[in-house]
Design goal:
Ethylene_sulfur-biosynth (chains A, B); PyrdxlP-dep_Trfase (chains A, B); pyridoxal phosphate (chains A, B); 2 domains; Aspartate Aminotransferase, domain 1; four-stranded antiparallel sheet; homodimer; 11 helices; Aspartate Aminotransferase, domain 2; carbon-sulfur lyase activity (chains A, B); alpha/beta; seven-stranded mixed sheet
Chain lengths: 396, 396
């Protein structure tokens, strides 16, 4: 009930109720690294305190509309402004000649892009492809409604059909962190660039991306997955209009509260990059991810029992330094003595996602590097135990 | 960027920026009653002040998860509690033996229900029907992805196909406010009850609804369309699970900010009903709607130029009084001298939705009764002008 004072008094305590990730784990707890729940930046946001706090009164955001003058009529002007600002501060994507379409997470916008980009009057569904290993959600997202407009056609590397197609280019790639370009070179192809992880905490910013359709999400940029805010940068006006129409028909817009809070958070991050002395969010994120990757590579050893991808040193335009990628997921491969790596890790109370889900094989798993500090420490401990008990490769 | 004080200082001023509906209208402005933007309760929420204010800190709602123990794992426990509470306070729907699934507005949940209820392995798409006049968005929502699972089959009153089908029962009905029951009596039919307007401000609560799938939305209950929060009450566990799966595949959950704010607002409304002396939200809403309907019936006259549906007096279990329905939309019919009522009203700077969009005819329009006070007054003024200039039925 109470007034705003009560709200404020409670607001800066992140209890488990407010944040599902803060419950303390017992030493024999199963740790879930199957999903990429981005809770790793929690301590940063706890330290930020009220600088990021936003309040809503009962009389705000009653209308469906946010800006009737905008093509994307439900996009809050503050969010549009802060999206443009953070991209120009980071330099990872061109915004000036692009329209912004907001969605309930970038997943919503993948669906919107498929709808907007497939030819409207094709006799048969347009093929949707992505190079393996591809994000495990793409096939189901494409096929679950058995749409007559598009259908999943699998690995872009083996796709050789003539006619129109849609290729999803995920860069850095989920699950393996590789930097990617389009593979199919058909003349009737259209591209969707999923750039969810193209931020300095995960990879060097090597260029200002300038593709036709680019997808981003607050979940992986700021770590606020609970807000469900994603945005698309779209060059072509009609494509942006069709994506906006998709969001209208499926959900009649996107939560104003989530949009305004995301605008606030993006603003705080941009400020943190621009004002010397303030705690640069991306520097914090880079240090955190670098520390985790260092620990992981150390415990796994370079190719002894399991192997990890190697990433080249690249010059980052944002930091002005050479560095390696430190992806949000570890794409781990086991050696010949293990058939099913996911099953093996489950035996050690580590849940990771089976490589076969990504169009790869069961000798691979994807393990989230975006978990809480506590989960990550348990993950490292258990990998150490596995190594300790694995002399002579007797795994079972 | 300031701290919480700045937030609070600003939070209770509803500027046009914060609420698209507060810009002042010029006397010759076109008034848009085509969409049902529920901005009519604005003065109630402005008067509520800080009682409804909710604040979010930077470290809240990072995770995708809200309650891992719940079938609907992204549903905030507070929202679940307040949804159950308001239904038991109002007595309009049974909650105890139903699962709650939250969506980004009830539109999202219509899609989820179609997906969850159609037989999974049918050779051809399941027919989706609704009695005309039906909500104009149903046909497009059903067909826009050309799903192989379901397809729009039009007016339930003329539907005579054998085999499985889905019937949407909207009660009170959008556009005409009538109270409805299922019409098709096939043995393989499944029902979706869209009860968005089954609240005391719109219609007498004549029974506690106890259907298999019941859809509600904050937009029409509290007037907060900008939050995009809808909920489904679902009896069957597998159907609730499939609807939850749909929300997962399309948007990976629903904004936590919007859920927590809606929980707060629903709580304030329930309190307003339970504590004598406090400003009962539904009483306020009933007075407001009754006043608008009285003015509208007065200016239109009973059947002179245009006609409106008549509604029976019913006993309302919530108020303990007999009253008529006072729907969120006016379903207006013109007399024989007008061919296209929408076009006619547009000539008088009133935008309403053409009856043909609802499976009816151009002699009908749907005009929103949920607009701001200012818009409603202009609407009434212009209807008066039309009557004034219509002696001898010279309309043009």
């Amino acid at each position: 009930m109470g007034g705003i004072e009560e709200q404020v008094a409670g607001v800066n305590k992140c209890t488990p109720k407010e944040n599902g990730t803060m419950t303390s784990l017992s030493s024999d707890a199963v740790i879930n690294l199957d999903i990429g729940d981005p809770t790793l930046f929690q301590s940063y946001w706890s330290k930020i305190g009220d600088k990021c706090t936003i309040a809503f009164s009962g009389c705000q955001s009653l209308s469906y509309f946010a800006n009737t003058k905008n093509l994307c009529w439900f996009l809050e002007p503050e969010l549009e402004e802060q999206i443009k600002r953070i991209h120009s501060v980071v330099g990872n994507a061109a915004v000036e000649d692009h329209h912004i379409v907001v969605g309930t997470g970038s997943t919503h916008l993948i669906h919107a892009a498929l709808f907007a980009l497939c030819p409207p009057d094709c006799p048969e569904p347009t093929s949707v492809v992505c190079a393996a290993p591809y994000y495990s959600c793409y096939p189901e997202a494409t096929d679950f409604l058995r749409s007559g407009l598009y259908k999943w056609a699998g690995d872009a590397q083996t796709f050789d059909k003539d006619g129109p197609y849609l290729e999803i280019v995920t860069s850095p790639n989920n699950p393996d962190g590789s930097i990617r370009e389009a593979i199919v070179k058909g003349i009737q192809g259209k591209l969707i660039h999923d750039l969810a992880y193209y931020w300095p905490q995960y990879t060097p910013i090597t260029c200002c991306a300038h593709y036709d359709v680019m997808l981003f999400t607050a979940s992986k940029c700021t770590g606020h997955a609970g807000s469900r805010i994603g945005w698309a940068l779209v060059k072509d006006k009609d494509v942006a209009r069709k994506m906006t129409k998709f969001i209208e028909v499926t959900t009649i817009g996107v939560s104003k509260e989530a949009q305004l809070r995301t605008a606030k958070i993006l603003g705080v991050i941009s400020d943190s990059c621009l004002h010397p002395g303030s705690n640069n969010f991306f520097e914090y994120g880079r240090r955190l991810m670098a520390g985790r990757w260092e620990k992981l590579r150390e415990v796994m050893g370079r190719g002894e029992l399991f192997s990890l991808p190697e990433y080249p040193q690249e010059y980052c335009l944002f930091t002005g330094e050479y560095s390696e990628s430190q992806p949000g997921f570890a794409w781990m491969k086991c050696d010949e003595n293990i058939e099913d790596f996911e099953k093996f890790l489950r035996g050690h109370k580590i849940l990771a996602r089976n490589g076969s889900r990504f169009g790869s094989d069961p000798k691979h798993v994807r393990a989230s590097m975006l978990c809480t500090e506590e989960e990550f420490e348990l993950f490292i401990e258990r990998l150490l135990t596995i190594r300790g008990t694995s002399n002579g490769n007797h795994y079972f």
